[in-house]
Design brief:
The protein is mainly alpha-helical. It is 64% helix and 0% strand. The longest helix has 33 residues. It has one domain: Four Helix Bundle (Hemerythrin (Met), subunit A), CATH 1.20.120.910.
């Protein structure tokens, strides 16, 4: 396994995730009652805010997991599934670097 490639992939993903978090934070700002929008539009905005808040929580959790994986990249057990203790395929690590489980155990 080329750990330098994996490390760069993780760093790239961290950067993208941090940008997503900032974007979601902008989208989840409180909706001012003084905004001149209609009642239906206000309800739609509140619903969208809830969806964006859920996306923000997911992005924050992903960032936590990415940082955890990055801190363990030099460990001997890096790339080993936490559940079944089998090696996680490099393709999965490159596609989803925050994964701590192999595909079978993640189901």
């Amino acid at each position: 396994m080329d750990k330098s490639q994996v490390k760069q992939t993780i760093l790239d993903e961290i950067s993208k995730t941090e940008a997503s978090i900032e974007h979601y934070k902008d989208l989840t700002k409180p909706i001012s009652p003084s905004d001149a929008i209609g009642r239906v539009s206000r309800m739609d905005a509140i619903n969208n805010k809830s969806v964006n808040e859920a996306s923000l929580r997911q992005a924050e959790q992903k960032l936590i997991n990415l940082n955890r994986v990055l801190s363990k990249i030099d460990d001997d057990d890096f790339g080993i599934c936490l559940k079944c203790k089998q090696s996680i395929p490099i393709g999965r690590i490159l596609i989803r670097p925050q994964s701590l489980l192999c595909v079978n155990c993640a189901r």
